[in-house]
């Protein structure tokens, strides 16, 4: 379990040159209050930036430094994991990234990316997305579990169940599998060449043993045969080379198509983002008559025009996305076709190499025949020497055969291991085992908040929601308050599962302004009932409604602005 102890920062956002320090273990429940812009939510940004090099809100890195002092921005977070105490220090101007274990700096020889991966994979054992699902529920940049795409939902659950290691192993094995495939192909090629060489040498040795006075004539006949085969092989080789050149011309645009595919993928992501933004804007104007910022009524003509404009933009973007997807399919089809052509070229090159080898071997054989003719004219050939050479070739052939069988067997084991480690293998078995527990916990927490629905996640983490009258719903069918109850139930479920697995298990729970928007009075009371049942938790709640909830907290922190700098009042 990760036990967070302290968090402090200076020259971060609106904080000045004096550290603001928060004891994360001081109380089981802490209320954070303050006026708008006083720096309440800076706690979230500081914690996420210190651990994952990115703030919780959508703020550029260069904007995190206090604009007045414009230097010496630093955040430190301390936590305990087992019997080890860690301290992470991250700064801007100058850039700092240091990890201390029991006050000893961990080796920084690796790159910043590898250093960050070590922090997430070896120490925290979770990434940013999983951390936010278990620790933070905010009103700004928080993306609820139900808003995530299917593969990101799976990634979060894998982190919580501590089975992401299987994914990393699968990635490593995939690279190893590719290397072994090439090795198998190479060793088979070597074995074929060696086998052909052995057969030719063996035939040559047999001819030497059976020779008589007429051997010279036989050698001349063999030379004629070799020339004949050599001419045939050269004709085949010329045709193959011409075929290789013509085939290569058909895939000369391969790199351009790959570049186009990457550009189309980036454009798809951009269009999807714009489409989502316009849908959110449309949803706001369709469901609201009052501006949630200035609380002023929205002009109806402006609202109608805005809704119409957004619908037109959405239609335009959806049509563009459809055309783009068609173009992506065409491009990927062309790339696949080119890949098949590349494989054909590889096969042709291998065939050409075999022919060249055969020609070389024929030439060498012809040279040996010429030498043999000379030697036969002068003396008897020493067959014992040839016998030793043949035995050496045989021994080498046996070694290559052993190597070939070993590589093929190793690849077979890698193939089986990948079958086990992929999404349909052992991970699927583990997830299937925990799904009933997850669904039971989600419904338990929903009922604790007086929300009586039957919520069910399947193995692909798609939801099925039924009311008490067995009507079917989806997440987006509910009001914002009901959605928030589902988000809270999922949050508490992931924390419970994390404790069971001791994976992304932490004492910290931070809720940012969730009581100020969608959660009604009954929902708030139900939420506090659940909080009371949690043990070893340090809950921080950021709210504008603090004055009506003072009696529910054991600790209260108030942020305020003093001379344009944030401080704790």
By secondary-structure content and strand pairing, the structural class works out as alpha/beta
* Total helical segments: 12
Can you list the strand order of the major beta sheet?
2-1-4-5-6-7
Cα(first) to Cα(last) distance is 32 Å
Helix fraction?
A: 55-70%
Please identify, by name, the CATH architecture of the largest domain: Orthogonal Bundle
Radius of gyration: 36 Å
Give the topology string: H per helix, E per strand.
EEEHEEEEHHEHHHHHHHEEEHEHEEE
User: Overall 3D geometry?
Assistant: elongated
Concise structural overview:
This protein is of the alpha/beta class and 569 residues long. The chain contains 12 helices and 15 strands.
Description:
- This protein has helices at about 40-50, 110-125, 130-135, 150-160, 165-210, 215-250, 255-285, 300-380, 385-420, 425-450, 480-500, 520-535, and strands spanning about 1-10, 20-25, 30-35, 75-80, 85-90, 95-100, 105, 135, 455, 465, 470-475, 510, 540, 555-560, 565-569.
- By secondary structure, it is of the alpha/beta class.
- It has 2 domains: about 1-160 and about 485-569, P-loop containing nucleotide triphosphate hydrolases (Rossmann fold); about 170-420, Helix Hairpins, CATH 1.10.287.
- It is elongated and about 115 Å long.
């Amino acid at each position: 379990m990760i036990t967070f102890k302290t968090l402090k920062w200076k020259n971060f956002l609106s904080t000045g040159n004096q550290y603001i320090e928060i004891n994360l273990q001081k109380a089981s429940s802490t209320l954070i209050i303050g006026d708008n812009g006083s720096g309440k939510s800076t706690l979230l940004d500081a914690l996420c930036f210190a651990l994952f090099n990115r703030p919780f809100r959508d703020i550029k890195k260069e904007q995190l430094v206090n604009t007045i002092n414009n230097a010496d921005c630093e955040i430190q977070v301390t936590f305990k994991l087992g019997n080890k105490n860690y301290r992470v220090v991250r700064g801007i101007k100058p850039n700092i990234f240091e990890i201390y274990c029991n006050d000893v700096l961990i080796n920084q020889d690796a790159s910043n990316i590898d250093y960050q991966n070590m922090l997430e994979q070896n120490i925290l054992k979770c990434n940013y997305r999983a951390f936010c699902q278990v620790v933070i529920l905010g009103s700004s940049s928080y993306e609820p579990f139900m808003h995530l795409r299917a593969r990101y939902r799976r990634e979060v659950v894998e982190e919580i169940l501590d089975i992401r290691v299987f994914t990393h192993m699968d990635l490593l094995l995939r690279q190893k599998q590719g290397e072994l495939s090439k090795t198998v192909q190479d060793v088979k090629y070597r074995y074929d060449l060696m086998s052909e060489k052995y057969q030719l040498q063996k035939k040559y040795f047999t001819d030497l043993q059976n020779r008589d006075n007429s051997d010279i004539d036989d050698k001349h006949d063999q030379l004629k045969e070799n020339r004949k085969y050599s001419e045939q092989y050269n004709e085949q080789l010329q045709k193959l080379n011409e075929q290789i050149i013509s085939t290569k011309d058909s895939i000369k645009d391969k790199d351009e198509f790959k570049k186009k595919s990457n550009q189309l993928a980036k454009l798809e992501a951009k269009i999807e983002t714009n489409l989502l933004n316009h849908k959110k804007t449309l949803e706001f104007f369709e469901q609201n008559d009052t501006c949630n910022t200035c609380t002023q009524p929205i002009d109806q003509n402006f609202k109608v025009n805005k809704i119409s404009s957004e619908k037109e933009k959405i239609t335009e973007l959806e049509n563009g996305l459809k055309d783009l997807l068609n173009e992506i399919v065409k491009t990927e089809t062309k790339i696949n076709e080119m890949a098949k052509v590349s494989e054909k070229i590889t096969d042709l090159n291998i065939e050409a190499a075999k022919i060249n080898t055969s020609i070389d071997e024929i030439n060498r054989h012809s040279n040996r025949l010429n030498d043999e003719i000379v030697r036969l004219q002068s003396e008897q050939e020493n067959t014992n020497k040839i016998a030793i050479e043949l035995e050496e070739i045989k021994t080498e052939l046996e070694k290559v055969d052993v190597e070939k069988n070993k590589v093929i067997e190793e690849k077979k084991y890698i193939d089986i291991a990948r079958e086990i480690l992929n999404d349909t293998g052992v991970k699927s078995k583990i997830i299937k085992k925990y799904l009933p527990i997850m669904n039971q916990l989600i419904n338990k927490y929903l009922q604790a908040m007086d929300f009586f629905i039957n919520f069910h996640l399947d193995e692909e983490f798609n939801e099925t929601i039924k009311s008490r009258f067995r009507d079917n719903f989806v997440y987006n069918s509910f009001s914002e308050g009901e959605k928030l109850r589902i988000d809270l139930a999922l949050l508490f479920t992931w924390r419970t599962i994390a404790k069971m697995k001791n994976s992304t298990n932490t004492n910290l729970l931070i809720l940012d302004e969730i009581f100020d928007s969608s959660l009604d009075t009954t929902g708030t009371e139900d939420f506090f009932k659940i909080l009371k049942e949690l043990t070893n938790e340090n809950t921080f709640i950021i709210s504008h409604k603090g004055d009506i909830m003072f009696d529910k907290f054991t600790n209260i922190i108030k942020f305020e602005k003093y001379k344009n700098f944030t401080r704790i009042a």
